[in-house]
Amino acid sequence: MANFNLRKAEPKDVPDILRLIKELAKYEEMEDQVILTEKDLLEDGFGDHPFYHCVVADVPVEHQKVEGYSVIGFAMYYFTYDPWIGKLLYLEDFYVMREYRGFGIGSEILKTLSDTAVKNRCSSMHFIVAESNKASIDFYKRRGASDLSLQEGWRLFRIDKENLLKMSAEE
Amino acid sequence: MDFTIRAATLEDCKDISRMILELAEHEKVSDQIKITQRDLEQDGFSKNPFFHGIIAEVPEHLKSRDGHTKVGYSLYFYTYSSWKGRAVYMEDLYVMPEFRGKGIGQALMAKVSQLGLAAGCNQLNFTVLDWNKSSLDFYRKQGCWDVTSELGYHCMRCEGDALEHLAQGDL
């Protein structure tokens, strides 16, 4: 099965994007963490100032392995900034349904994203991977990615909404 | 200490550039800076900015030994979590050494939190180097948690030749 199509996501793809986000979260054993809704995705991705961009992979009807689904893979990304080297492309999510793996769809998505990064004069593509996800880490390392947490000691920190509110109230 | 926190303007880029270099020197990596003051002006203050800035300023009579009144800054931008939606990423947070311990860093971070919440964000993310004990302690006191430690997420990067090869589709 080599017949698939990569394209920019459209508003009509939002239900499939959310479905795939939840599938990927389930794969990472985090599905109860997804609170995003279709309404959020629509407003945040297809309004005047999108917070993210998306590419989707779809297959023609006759090649559907899972009934009813033609969108079988996606990548969500946005542009970030490093004051030392400039623009970067940040890969937020990247997923291909299990039934469609091994056909080069993932590689093709990554190629499209890298091309987008280069065309937008981004010096680098960044993303995070769970250290337990050995298959993905190998996939990325084979393509020349380096692990900044291991090599340079970078640790990702987060403040959640409750503490954000506390902090913003301190003057 | 008497200081104000305000949005950065084009005119602040000279001081932001100076302080970026100071921060890089503090992190012992100043030879990696490729971005110039002109790049900052274009990338931060054009129609579609890649980042936003806030500045901490002191009155003239409290200026630094070298005569600077702009004594701290933060650079941030909006990102997106496929689980939680809108997020704000704090790329840089810096206060000149002679002005530390007076609440300026906390005020800068409070401002980023306020702006993020106003934009509908649910979380604030940033990275810290694992050897930077004073920063790690400061952030933990603000209620931040270490995503790399707790969830095992590693920050990854694909750049330079690796990015070009990926864009060509080479493996």
UniProtKB/TrEMBL annotation, chain A:
<comment type="similarity">
    <text>Belongs to the acetyltransferase family.</text>
</comment>
<dbReference type="InterPro" id="IPR051016">
    <property type="entry name" value="Diverse_Substrate_AcTransf"/>
</dbReference>
<dbReference type="GO" id="GO:0005737">
    <property type="term" value="C:cytoplasm"/>
</dbReference>
<dbReference type="GO" id="GO:0004145">
    <property type="term" value="F:diamine N-acetyltransferase activity"/>
</dbReference>
<protein>
    <recommendedName>
        <fullName>Diamine acetyltransferase 1</fullName>
        <ecNumber>2.3.1.57</ecNumber>
    </recommendedName>
</protein>
<dbReference type="Pfam" id="PF00583">
    <property type="entry name" value="Acetyltransf_1"/>
</dbReference>
<keyword id="KW-0963">Cytoplasm</keyword>
<dbReference type="GO" id="GO:0019809">
    <property type="term" value="F:spermidine binding"/>
</dbReference>
<dbReference type="InterPro" id="IPR016181">
    <property type="entry name" value="Acyl_CoA_acyltransferase"/>
</dbReference>
<keyword id="KW-0012">Acyltransferase</keyword>
<keyword id="KW-0808">Transferase</keyword>
<feature type="domain" description="N-acetyltransferase">
    <location>
        <begin position="4"/>
        <end position="170"/>
    </location>
</feature>
<comment type="pathway">
    <text>Amine and polyamine degradation; putrescine degradation; N-acetylputrescine from putrescine: step 1/1.</text>
</comment>
<comment type="subunit">
    <text>Homodimer.</text>
</comment>
<dbReference type="GO" id="GO:0032918">
    <property type="term" value="P:spermidine acetylation"/>
</dbReference>
<dbReference type="InterPro" id="IPR000182">
    <property type="entry name" value="GNAT_dom"/>
</dbReference>
Automatic annotation (TrEMBL), chain B:
<dbReference type="GO" id="GO:0006595">
    <property type="term" value="P:polyamine metabolic process"/>
</dbReference>
<protein>
    <recommendedName>
        <fullName>N-acetyltransferase domain-containing protein</fullName>
    </recommendedName>
</protein>
<dbReference type="InterPro" id="IPR016181">
    <property type="entry name" value="Acyl_CoA_acyltransferase"/>
</dbReference>
<feature type="domain" description="N-acetyltransferase">
    <location>
        <begin position="3"/>
        <end position="171"/>
    </location>
</feature>
<dbReference type="GO" id="GO:0008080">
    <property type="term" value="F:N-acetyltransferase activity"/>
</dbReference>
<keyword id="KW-0808">Transferase</keyword>
<dbReference type="Pfam" id="PF00583">
    <property type="entry name" value="Acetyltransf_1"/>
</dbReference>
<keyword id="KW-0012">Acyltransferase</keyword>
<dbReference type="InterPro" id="IPR000182">
    <property type="entry name" value="GNAT_dom"/>
</dbReference>
<dbReference type="InterPro" id="IPR051016">
    <property type="entry name" value="Diverse_Substrate_AcTransf"/>
</dbReference>
<comment type="similarity">
    <text>Belongs to the acetyltransferase family.</text>
</comment>
